[in-house]
């Protein structure tokens, strides 16, 4: 399989171990040779990232990750650097023991970690404590060391995975290394791209260790990174009727802003017509602020039905509320059988009255909403975001966007994509309302629910990154509207 076909693929820890075993058993590459290649790749990353570094400290555990660290220390020593090795244990086994022996032959000394001792000064610290196999809280001595390393403010390189981070899920069951640079090996581990990984991995580089493309044949990826995509140019004779009519439903008392943001994002993402079903009190403000939105005051299902009959796609939930008015509109909208995007209180009502969808549907929960939809706590959702997103998609027979750092897009058939864009500035009110509008607009323009969700999440996150060029703190949802238009037309490089 050509590398270009799997460079965006994400794998579970079990799959990466299988690839490692294939390299050894089928390709005849020894485990020690793979360890040498990993150390070489990581040392090259260290030298590129910190070219002025002359003193390094390598923290080694007893497993193969520690073996990578011992060999990196040997390379650094051979390059004339001042190197210290601090180890959790001298009980290394197998290839890791051979790597430790290599270091001892080169430099002759290691230091055993003692709690409450000071860390040596260095230009760079190297984390080789735990590898991909850790799925538990680090032991007390290791946890103390990790906390000391994090508090040191010394630049930090992590080998393969920051110690303490679950490489399968992106969860940290206890303390975990906060790296500036992570050099990962062989294949991309899915847990490094979502959840708490965002605060742990720093800059992430993948090195496949020179392994041939045949290694990946017959190994389907568990997930994929999103591609940067947009719709093709419109036909020169296109008219608004060709581009779909979206009806956005929401905006209860005091929440006109939510439905306005949703409607504006729908327009900026290319829908031909956008109607708003909202409280009558919101009409003047909506017409004044954005006359292109066709705002209608609705009191109940009968008035909504007239609007439903003309719409192609529904965006249900922004500012909807869970009272009698919101519930009546929600129920009427879902009973219409129209393709829809469901968010916010639309999801909270779904948690109260579950149903499986037969028409195309995209659900866009944040972890709290996902927990209510699954009958779990937020912590239970976040401990394995991949399993949570897939469970939601299967339970409701809908495409699901589990929002957060490293948003996940899950299909009922098990497919899953991970968003690699976005920034902390997007943790502000109204961002979810925008996403609802973007996805609804793409549905209205002919995308499947799967493609609309994937493209919509990517456009939304990339627009957030463009808007954040002026700073993350203080970023407003409305700041994304112009970048959405730019990116939706494929003009990001102009």
From TrEMBL:
Residues holding AMP: 403-407, 432
EC number: 4.2.1.136, 5.1.99.6
Name of the molecule in the record: Bifunctional NAD(P)H-hydrate repair enzyme
Residue ranges constituting the YjeF N-terminal domain according to the UniProt record: 16-217
Binding site for (6S)-NADPHX: 64-68, 131-137, 160, 258, 319, 366, 433
Domain YjeF C-terminal, residue spans: 219-491
Record text on cofactor binding: Binds 1 potassium ion per subunit.
The keyword DNA-binding is annotated on this UniProt entry: no
Keywords: ATP-binding, Isomerase, Lyase, Metal-binding, Multifunctional enzyme, NAD, NADP, Nucleotide-binding, Potassium
Family indicated by similarity: In the C-terminal section; belongs to the NnrD/CARKD family. Belongs to the NnrE/AIBP family.
Transmembrane domains' residue ranges: none
Residue positions binding K(+): 65, 127, 163
Subunit-level organization: Homotetramer.
Cofactor section: K(+); Mg(2+)
Pfam family, one: YjeF_N
Family matches, as InterPro entries: CARKD, Nnr, Ribokinase-like, YjeF_N_dom, YjeF_N_dom_sf
Function in brief: Catalyzes the epimerization of the S- and R-forms of NAD(P)HX, a damaged form of NAD(P)H that is a result of enzymatic or heat-dependent hydration. This is a prerequisite for the S-specific NAD(P)H-hydrate dehydratase to allow the repair of both epimers of NAD(P)HX. Catalyzes the dehydration of the S-form of NAD(P)HX at the expense of ADP, which is converted to AMP. Together with NAD(P)HX epimerase, which catalyzes the epimerization of the S- and R-forms, the enzyme allows the repair of both epimers of NAD(P)HX, a damaged form of NAD(P)H that is a result of enzymatic or heat-dependent hydration.
Catalysis performed (reactions): (6R)-NADHX = (6S)-NADHX; (6S)-NADPHX + ADP = AMP + phosphate + NADPH + H(+); (6R)-NADPHX = (6S)-NADPHX; (6S)-NADHX + ADP = AMP + phosphate + NADH + H(+)
């Amino acid at each position: 399989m050509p590398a270009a076909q799997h460079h965006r693929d994400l794998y579970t820890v079990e799959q990466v171990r299988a690839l490692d075993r294939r390299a050894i058993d089928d390709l005849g590459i020894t485990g020690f040779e793979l360890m040498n290649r990993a150390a070489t790749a990581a040392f090259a990353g260290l030298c590129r990232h910190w070219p002025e570094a002359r003193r390094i400290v390598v923290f080694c555990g007893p497993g193969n990750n520690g073996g990578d660290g011992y060999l990196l220390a040997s390379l650094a020593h051979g390059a004339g650097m001042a190197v210290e090795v601090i180890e959790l244990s001298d009980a290394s086994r197998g290839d890791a023991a051979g790597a430790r022996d290599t270091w001892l032959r080169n430099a002759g000394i290691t230091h055993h970690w003692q709690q409450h001792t000071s860390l040596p000064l260095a230009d760079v610290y190297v984390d080789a404590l735990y590898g991909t196999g850790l799925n538990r809280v680090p032991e007390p001595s290791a946890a103390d060391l990790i906390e000391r390393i994090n508090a040191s403010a010394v630049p930090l390189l992590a080998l393969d995975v920051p110690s303490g981070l679950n490489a399968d899920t992106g969860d940290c069951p206890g303390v975990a290394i906060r790296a500036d640079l992570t050099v990962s090996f062989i294949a991309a581990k899915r847990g490094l791209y979502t959840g708490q990984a965002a605060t742990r991995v720093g800059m992430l580089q993948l090195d496949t260790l020179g392994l041939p493309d045949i290694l990946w044949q017959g190994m389907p990826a568990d997930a994929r990174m999103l591609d940067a995509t947009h719709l093709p140019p419109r036909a020169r004779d296109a008219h608004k009727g060709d581009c779909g009519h979206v009806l956005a439903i929401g905006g209860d008392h005091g929440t006109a802003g939510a439905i306005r943001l949703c409607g504006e994002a729908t327009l900026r993402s290319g829908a031909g017509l956008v109607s708003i079903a909202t409280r009558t009190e919101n009409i003047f403000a909506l017409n004044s602020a954005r006359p292109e939105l066709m705002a209608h005051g609705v009191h109940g299902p009968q008035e909504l039905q007239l609007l439903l009959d003309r719409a192609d796609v529904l965006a249900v939930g922004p500012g909807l509320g869970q009272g009698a008015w919101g519930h009546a509109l929600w129920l009427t909208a879902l009973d219409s059988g129209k393709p829809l995007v469901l968010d916010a209180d639309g999801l909270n009502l779904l948690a109260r009255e579950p149903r499986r969808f037969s028409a195309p549907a995209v659900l866009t929960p944040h972890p709290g909403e996902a927990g209510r939809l699954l009958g779990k706590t937020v912590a239970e959702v976040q401990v394995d975001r991949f399993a949570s997103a897939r469970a939601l998609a299967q339970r409701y027979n809908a495409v699901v966007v589990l929002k957060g750092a490293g948003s996940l897009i899950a299909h009922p058939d098990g497919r899953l994509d991970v968003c690699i864009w976005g920034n902390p500035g997007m943790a502000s009110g109204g961002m979810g309302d925008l996403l609802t509008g973007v996805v609804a607009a793409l549905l209205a323009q002919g995308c499947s629910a799967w493609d609309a969700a994937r493209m919509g999440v990517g456009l939304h996150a990339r627009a957030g990154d463009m808007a954040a060029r002026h700073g993350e703190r203080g970023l407003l949802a409305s700041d994304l509207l112009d970048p959405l238009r730019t990116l939706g037309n494929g003009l990001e490089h102009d």
